[in-house]
Amino acid sequence: SEFDLVHLRYSDVLNKFVTPLKENDIKGSTIKGHLIAVRSLMKMIKKEGIYDKANIDDLNNYVLTDKTLKTNDVKHHEAISLEELDQFKDFLTKRKYRDDQDGMMGKKYAELVDFMFKTGIRVTATFSIKWIDFQFIVAHDGTRFARLDVIDKGHKLNTKYLTLSYYQNLHDLLFTGSDEEFVFGELSHESFKNAFRDFSKKINHKLSPHSLRAGAATTLYYQTKDIMLVKDFLDHESVANTEKYIHNQTDPTMTGTAMLTSDYDYS
């Protein structure tokens, strides 16, 4: 409304829009793109003379902007290695939690980490999964799978096939009585992010929930060298995006310095 525009302040944009998106691992370039779109809308409002009392120029120049946002932040989050993955699951299992009446909360968080790594599903979509989203199918060779259909980034349908044994283990640990309940409904997104923060400090490697997706994709690529398989795993529309994703993850063993220093004679 006109009242909202007249009273809109930079602090509102920062605290209610920019910061929450950053906390959900949205890239600065994406946030900046959203602000540009809003400023374009403001220009149309000014052109049509819809809200005469609102100073559109001031809004666009001083309020609907954040110069700290980067436009070249195409680099993805650090990838978690398989060794770090195991360490993190052990870290979660031993961690103390509130309301952990059955003493299983750590194991459930470890299961969440394993699930996100093996499916490549983003954290927000993962917490929206319900048991009813799983359907059971039989492959041509008779192998049974639990097919998971989940809406992920960009409102796209993402389908994953879990072995029946993996699904059963998930079900045994997390099912609480209703197919309409969220699979990870007992867990907290905020606690999950805090655990990543604490673990990152412990190992001196900055990781985030997105590191699971990056690490899984990188691991899958180095195991198979099949870029199309990784593209499908990440649910990318373009293989170019997948190539950028993979190539951003450096294998230290393949760098010149690592090769040369590994052959150094200390005698």
UniProtKB/TrEMBL annotation:
PROSITE patterns: TYR_RECOMBINASE
One Gene Ontology MF term: DNA binding
Alphabetical keyword list: DNA recombination, DNA-binding
Keyword Hydrolase assigned: no
InterPro entries xrefs: DNA_brk_join_enz, Integrase-like_cat_sf, Integrase_catalytic, Tyrosine_recombinase_XerCD
Entry-linked PANTHER family: INTEGRASE_RECOMBINASE PROTEIN MJ0367-RELATED, PHAGE INTEGRASE-RELATED
Similarity annotation: Belongs to the 'phage' integrase family.
Protein name: Integrase
Originating species: Limosilactobacillus reuteri (Lactobacillus reuteri)
Lineage: Bacteria, Bacillati, Bacillota, Bacilli, Lactobacillales
